[in-house]
TrEMBL record:
Naturally occurring in which organism (per UniProt): Secundilactobacillus silagincola
UniProt-listed Gene3D superfamilies: 2.30.30.170, Cysteine proteinases
Keywords: Signal
Protein name, UniProt field: GW domain-containing protein
UniProt cross-references to Pfam families, sorted A to Z: GW, Peptidase_C39_2
Span of the signal peptide: 1-30
All copies of domain GW, residue ranges: 38-121
Amino acid sequence: MNLKHGIAALLLGLSIGISAVATNTSSASAATYTPVTKLTKVSYYTTMGANTSQNYGVYATGGYQTSAKNVTPISYGKNFAGKTIHITREEVANGTTWLKFTYNHTKTGWINQKATVTSTYRLYAPLIGQRPELPTGCEITATAMMLQFGGAKVTKTSLAKEMPRSSDPNKGFVGSPYKTSGWYVYPGGLMGVVKAHMGTAKNMTGYSLTSIKKQVRRNHLVVVWVGNFDGFSNHALTVTGYSKSRIYYNDPWTYKRTSMTNSSMTSHRKLDANRALSY
């Protein structure tokens, strides 16, 4: 082989090698990341699972392999096991749902939805106490919490003024909610008030606890009527969430966010004819 032909062959070999490297690099880059097919803004609380059988990775800015920043975990689900976490985004990539969560207002990351306790779903609703203005106005105060969460610009007293009065609790409040001698109002008497502010109103009287949970999962709070509660023969609470065994609610009389077991809620609801109201 003469020198001229040798140099030409060498240059051709180098050219082919460089092209092959560039092609392989380009292919690897194109195949690295998974596209996000759905991104939704949300706001609810749940619990991180034990992550013992599978310790799911936590990623910085999205689901696994959705970008260069999401190839290596920044933490693991087991580090947050049993903790309450705030979910603010849901995204779907390659058929998997990923959740953006914040723990203790400081630690943030993305994790596979399977790493969480999917049977737990809690909403953070405004807490409003009925006292001192409305000593017997638990129903309208509970409704005010529901409507404020839904975005309505209302107060307990503005709704108390709107609430119709009647000798029939299915049509309006019996007596005066401003007095200790006041009585009560049923869902039918509040349907007009709810519809005026939300555009819809849903009388859920007779609905099961499972149906109420499904309504909350739609991000619609539910006012439930309960009997023999807080020292009253009948009372109203605002349901804000649930777990597998408990119902979470805001209590307008005690001015507390708290919970009770499913069985307790079922018993108390039965004592007041399973009345409930939503939108």
